[in-house]
Specification:
This protein is mainly α. It folds into two domains: 2-502, Amino acid/polyamine transporter I, CATH 1.20.1740; 519-669, no CATH class. Helices cover 69% and strands 5% of the residues. It has 26 helices and four strands. Strand 2 and strand 3 form a beta hairpin. Helix 5 packs across helix 17 (391-399) and helix 9 runs antiparallel to helix 20 (467-476). It is elongated, with a radius of gyration of 30 Å. This is Transporter. Its main location: membrane. Belongs to the BCCT transporter (TC 2.A.15) family. It is a multi-pass membrane protein.
């Protein structure tokens, strides 16, 4: 009975070094907060100043590669088997990826960032109109396509190699075309350790900001008397408990339901501000801001501010920090996006991940940021700009200039709380997946354990003032991971080329087409619509005879083939088993399809009597699409099997196709 409760699914090679590093960094940040912060800040400063071009080029490559894939011939490749379909509705899918990606950040920075840009001294030399335009432009830049391209590359790589190649949903799987079987050794463990640590630090620091903002909002509303560590402990304990409960409930229940509720609440809040605030100004600023963004897209993308030395500190503090922040969060967000994206096509995935959240972010930032700037100039007399150094309270002070400010502030706190919970529960879910190498079933105490560890270490660091040190550690890890993501692109490009070639491979030119023999029988079948019984009989007679004759002929050549029979649904297949490569399978099964109504009354089709017709469809062991074989004679079926067998032999002889023909993949297909 005791063993039942202590049994775990952790991978020791990933979990042990990760916990040692995570706890070690958190303890140092808590015990020696100033020393640790100074040390990590100096490392971060060196990277941002001397190696910022790596971030700029990496993010640029991510954007270009995803846009290319979206419009390329690879866009219709599905993240899964060719016949797989999405597990979640489009709305639930978008809600979950959005809530996991930027939820708390949107609430924290929607007013704070535009106001901070607007009041920044590097923009003070210009007219307030230019300062407002620049504030919106750079906010769009930091929260737009570039940010989501980082998440998109990691999420796409994970989803593709997991659902298409049948590899574990793990970052190590994204390097399979480069490392091959080494992903199961130390190299793979090192990548997963990095992902787990990065995920933990990213979630901890972000939740730390969320707790501080919630505490500030509660104080402004006079619900709590002060912003203190004691109240932050209560907030963390309550919200992490809810997060653990949601994570234990699973993605289908907790995360999905909370994400759907929160996106609706956020949209309601946004519409309230839009219609109660300076509506005409907001719509106009969004429209002009969108044009400004597109006009400056390439300048922003490749900009390093090398010719504008006075703006370099701002560039490091904002753009480079954001790129590092998004990259450090990409293992967590990418894993979660991949988890919920099975069955989507590459084109659908990229379009949704790049465009829809970006448009929503632009609208959101325009509604809140532009409104805040308008109020600051026309109503507040610069009061909001004066609070630029205190972003924790900016959102709530902005709401003071709207009707029902207290009620709306409560709504904001509730939205932040739900974003907190969805970020934490999806983070707990992802961390347990990394630590267990994506075990299908894990004991619930593991999920609870990650939540407790997350809360305990976050509070320990928050109490000691070591949150900045932890944030610096998170940003430092982004540099090596940006290079790892570049390798993801190399692996993905290599795999997609092989994938397309594999599924588009034509039959050999030596195959003999139909000669025209037995044309009368073929014509009869063409103009006939068949019921299930006649198709089952075709399989039992013609197909069975063809495959059994092939079975004997293969045996004469020393090849062990086996004919397998199935009754529900009716199907028959010939299978040649291999130890190293995928088994060769060619089968025929009974399928049905509906026929258009106008054919029912068509006099030239006298055999048609029903709304459905049945036909025998071929299928194969590698998820390629089959076709109707009802016109084939026995010999033509034999010829068709041999065409596929010749193609199979040709493909397995090429080393580059190893992933598609491995015996491991075959077992998972089974």
């Amino acid at each position: 009975m005791i063993k039942k409760y202590i049994k775990h699914t952790f991978s020791a090679g990933v979990t042990v070094p990760s916990l040692i590093f995570i706890i070690g960094v958190c303890v140092l940040s808590a015990v020696f907060p100033q020393l640790t912060e100074n040390l990590l800040d100096s490392i971060k400063g060196y990277i941002f100043i001397n190696l910022n071009w790596i971030y700029v080029w990496s993010v640029t490559i991510f954007v270009i590669f995803l846009v290319y894939l979206m419009f390329s011939r690879y866009g219709n490749i599905r993240l899964g088997r060719n016949d797989s379909r999405p597990e979640y509705s489009f709305f639930s899918w978008i809600s979950m990826l959005f809530a996991a990606g930027m939820g708390i950040g949107l609430m924290y920075f929607s007013v704070a960032e535009p106001i901070q840009h607007y009041s920044n001294e590097i923009f003070e030399g210009g007219h307030h109109i230019n300062r407002a335009k620049n504030a919106q432009l750079y906010t769009f830049f930091h929260w737009g396509i570039h940010a989501w391209a980082i998440y998109g590359i990691v999420g796409l790589s994970l989803a593709y190699f997991s659902y298409r190649y049948r590899l574990p949903l793990s970052l190590r799987s994204c390097l399979y075309p480069i490392l091959k079987d080494k992903i199961n050794g130390r190299w793979g463990n090192a990548i997963d350790v990095f992902a787990l640590c990065s995920t933990f630090f990213g979630i901890t620091t972000t939740l730390g900001f969320g707790v501080v903002q919630i505490n500030s909002g509660l104080k402004i509303l006079n619900i709590v008397p002060e912003t203190s560590f004691g109240y932050q402990v209560i907030i963390v304990c309550v919200l992490v408990s809810i997060s653990i409960f949601s994570a234990v409930s699973g993605v289908d229940k907790g995360v999905r339901i909370l994400s759907n509720v929160n996106i609706l609440a956020a949209i309601t809040l946004m519409l309230f501000v839009l219609f109660i605030g300076p509506t005409v100004y907001i719509i106009g600023s969004f429209t002009e801001g969108l044009g400004n963004y597109f006009n400056n897209f390439f300048n922003l993308t490749f900009g390093t501010h090398v010719y504008e030395e006075e703006t370099l500190p701002w560039f490091y503090k904002w753009t480079i920090l954001y790129w590092a922040w998004w990259i450090s969060w990409s293992p967590y967000v990418g894993l979660f996006i991949a988890k919920i994206s099975k069955g989507r096509t590459i084109r659908e995935f990229i379009a949704a991940v790049l465009i829809l959240p970006t448009i929503f972010n632009f609208i959101w930032m325009s509604v809140f940021g532009s409104s805040a700037i308008w109020f600051d100039k026309n109503t507040a007399g610069g009061a909001l700009s004066a609070l630029a150094g205190n972003p924790d309270v900016l959102m709530f002070r902005f709401l003071d200039y709207l009707p029902l400010s207290s009620l709306v502030s409560i709504m904001v706190i509730l939205i932040i709380i739900i974003f907190f919970v969805t970020s934490a529960d999806s983070g707990i879910f992802v961390m347990n997946g990394i630590a267990t190498r994506n075990a299908k079933v894990s004991p619930k105490w593991q999920t609870v354990g990650w939540g407790i560890l997350l809360a305990a270490l976050a509070l320990m660091v928050l109490n000691a003032g070591g949150l900045n040190a932890l944030q610096s550690m998170t940003l430092i890890t982004a540099l090596p991971f940006s290079l790892i993501i570049i390798l993801f692109i190399v692996s993905l490009a290599k795999a997609l080329i092989i994938d397309k070639d594999y599924y588009d491979r034509e039959f050999s030119a030596t195959t003999v087409p139909w000669s025209g023999e037995f044309w009368k029988e073929r014509l009869r079948r063409i103009v006939s619509f068949n019921d299930r019984t006649s198709i089952d009989n075709f399989i039992d007679d013609t197909v069975k005879a063809a495959l059994e004759e092939l079975e004997k002929e293969f045996a004469d050549h020393g090849i062990e083939a086996k004919v397998n029979y199935f009754t529900d649904p009716k199907k028959i297949e010939i299978e040649i088993q291999y130890d190293v490569v995928n088994n060769f399978v060619y089968g025929v099964k009974t399928q049905s399809r509906s026929v258009s109504e106008y054919l029912v009354k068509e006099g030239n089709l006298p055999d048609y009597e029903h709304n459905n017709t049945f036909y025998p469809e071929s299928y194969f062991g590698d998820a390629r699409e089959g076709y109707d074989v009802r016109l084939f004679t026995k010999n033509e079926l034999i010829s068709d099997v041999l065409k596929h067998y010749e193609r199979f032999i040709e493909i397995i002889s090429e080393h580059k196709n190893a992933i598609f023909i491995s015996s491991d993949a075959n077992q998972k297909l089974k």
